[in-house]
Amino acid sequence: MAQDPRPAPFFVGESPALDFLNSVAIPRNVRYDWLESGPDLLDWLVAAELASDSELTPFREPAAAPALEEARKEIVTFRERLRPFIEAISGGPLTEADHPILAEINAILARGPRFLRIAPAAAAEDLASKPLALVDSHPLTEPRDLIVRIATAAARLITEADFRYVRNCEGPSCTLYFLDISKNHKRRWCSMEVCGNRAKAAAFRKR
Question: Has this prediction a pTM greater than 0.90?
Answer without folding.
Answer: no
